[in-house]
Amino acid sequence: MQRKGSLIILGTLACLMATTARADEDSLAWSGFMAPVLPGATVHHQQRSEFDSYRLVTGPTHTRFKESGTRVVEIHDVRELEGRLSKVLYRGGEGSSAFQIYRFYSEWMEHAGFEDIFRCDAETCGLDFELWWYRQNPFANDFGGRNSGPVSRATLHHYIAGHKETERGSIFVSIIITHGGTLGWAQPGFRIDMLEKTPFTFEAPDAGTDFRSDLNQEGFAILRDIAFEADTADLRPESDTVIEELADHLKDTSGNVFYVVGHTDASGDFDSNMRLSTERAEAVRDRLIEAGVAPELLKAHGVGPLSPVAPNHTVDGRAVNRRVELVRIASPTEAVASEPADEARADEAPAGTSAAEATQAAGAQAAEAAARIGQAARDASERVSSATEQAEPEPRLIPVPRVVGKWRRGAVTELEAAGFRVNVTGRNVGRVSRQSPAGGTGAEPGSTVNITIGN
Fold it and tell me: Are 453 and 433 contacting, i.e. CB atoms less than 8 angstroms apart?
């Protein structure tokens, strides 16, 4: 009987892998890799993007207690990915079981060539795994918990994470199977996230403008066609052409000093974004030096997400914000001309000082003066200042989870795990009707969030 059941699953898979995935792609004009759909299952909600970030969970939850006695549940094992992303929440068909779904997709992954990264069940995934898994990659639209409830407020059955290598590159899959969610489904629910790892290539919004005219007219330029491997500062080969053209231009700029500035979007960890933006700026600077640009003419800095040029709440906006810019500080001649008359100039250097030494000193003075000037995004002459490194740190704010509409126990657990104290008023049992501060606003870690249960 078991062998017969396996043959039925394999036969179904053979048909689905040949037709279902491609038909679904065609109907949605979707170019990404797709998993087959279990017969009878229906799509409840989906979210797809040609390029996005994703946090692939590769381990169970861990529980610890603070000195105050507050329990904290965390997921430590997460792999940061970028690429073409599909997140689809399904409702199982009439008469389907969570175990049937688990067997179906286990067989599919094996025959499609996926290798396991991590898998667990209700006993081995850890406390509240389904809640914390969902929080790594929530849906953008979740009014009233309609799209999170079937996963984050349900009973976990199984979780599987895997990957495979194809001619198109690395493909990752994350499948979570649950039952008994807050929407009251009689059938199990399951969500399948697929990410096709692809590099990000920057495309400037005004791609028709040449960097030479931008540098000459505005004093800064977004570097076109600079591409990095995902989540690294490794330049891709297609960046070579623009770097060579840029190096040739800089070698003819008569000693101008420039900042190479790395930018990221606002998704992910702030410190990691600052580090990555700096590493990418340094990578471009190093390649320009290798191409013959004098090292003293280039200063690398990273500003992370602090200078966006587009909204960070859209995929296209985040793509535009991830960029590398070149910012002209000043030329030695300009620096000397702007100094007071009683200070030494390159053409009035003391006896015994060569013209080259005087020019070098003036260039250093220009760079030092420009580094004290801090300006926000897209000013014509000074863009980034080293004064930001000495600035007083602002209080670190973290987003407050939105818990309105969620059950009391889950809301308290979620807020405490995010690092907040919780003050509860109203009924002992029920859903959250109000919260302050509101979900999505920034607040200091350890501050109090007030929630009201019931009307």
Answer: yes
What's the rounded Cα separation, in Å, for the pair 242 and 210?
Answer: 11
| Contact call for residues 24 and 37 (beta carbons, < 8 A) | yes
* Contact of 239 with 227, CB cutoff 8 Å: yes
Domains of the chain: 2-197 (no CATH), 200-390 (3.30.1330.60), 398-453 (3.30.10.20)
Q: What is the DSSP letter of 348?
A: G
pLDDT tens digits along 379-405: 433 443 343 344 445 556 778 888 888
Alpha carbons 172 and 33: distance in angstroms, whole number: 10
Helix, strand or coil, per DSSP, at residue 123: coil
How many other β-carbons are positioned within 10 Å of the β-carbon of residue 341? 6
Burial 220-241 (b: 16+ CB within 10 A, else e): bbbbbbbebebbebebbeebee
Residue recorded with tokens 């898979």: 13
Q: How many CA atoms lie within 13 A of 436 on its CB side?
A: 3
Cis peptide before 445 (omega within 30 of 0): no
* pLDDT digits 0-9 by tens, 197-253: 988 776 544 444 467 777 777 788 888 778 888 778 999 888 888 888 888 888 877
Instruction: Locate 313 and state its tokens.
Output: 């709440």
